[in-house]
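Saturday, quiet lab. Running sequence design on the structure tokens for the scaffold JK sent over.
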């Protein structure tokens, strides 16, 4: 079974990703570092605002609706609401959708509300443990998504997180999922074979 990492298109260049906000900047009152720490520790409830404020930076504001996935400083995918509707019709997710307001950096009175953070609560159980070896780091064994085998299952969701991998905030898909995501004709998603 081939799986792919699924992300927003990554910026090109030599700056560390933490310092490059390719498409969106969080506004000063947007506590993305705290929220990211909560996402990584799935036992902690998210203290996320009711609406996520962003500002455009390198992407033209009027082009936003052409994208299905926007790169932000948040580890949750910021998806076009059309894609979220599409995904949730294809698979019965246990999820939370947090609306985003994207402000035009050239005219702060212009706002796009067509995107939301898509927080998938459940993790998909698809590691073939019989044919995968954990990697030992110190005294802890963990599974790296690019060093394991996956079960050949029929019911992979179009977008999912993997139960038991060392990077619990990464999102994945299959070839079928890529086709389902791309069927909307929107750009902005990047898929890399694991």
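Result came back. Writing it out in full:
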């Amino acid at each position: 079974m081939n799986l792919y990492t699924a992300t927003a298109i990554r910026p090109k260049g030599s700056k560390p990703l933490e310092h490059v906000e390719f498409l969106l900047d969080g506004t000063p009152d947007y506590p993305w570092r705290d929220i990211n720490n909560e996402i990584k520790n799935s036992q902690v409830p998210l203290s996320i605002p009711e609406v996520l404020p962003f500002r455009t930076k390198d992407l033209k504001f009027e082009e936003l609706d052409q994208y299905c996935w926007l790169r932000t400083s948040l580890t949750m995918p910021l998806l076009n609401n059309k894609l979220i509707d599409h995904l949730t019709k294809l698979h019965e997710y246990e999820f939370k959708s947090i609306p985003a307001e994207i402000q035009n950096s050239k005219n702060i009175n212009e706002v796009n509300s067509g995107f939301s953070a898509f927080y998938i609560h459940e993790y998909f159980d698809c590691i073939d443990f019989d044919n995968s070896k954990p990697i030992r780091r110190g005294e802890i064994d963990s599974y790296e998504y690019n060093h394991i085998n996956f079960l050949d299952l029929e019911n992979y969701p179009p977008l999912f997180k993997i139960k038991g991998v060392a990077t619990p905030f990464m999102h994945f898909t299959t070839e079928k999922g890529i086709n389902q995501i791309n069927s909307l004709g929107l750009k902005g998603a990047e898929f890399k074979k694991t």
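Notes for JK: Confidence is low (pLDDT under 50) at residues 14-23. The CA atoms of residues 36 and 142 lie 21 Å apart. Ask whether to fix the surface positions before the next round.
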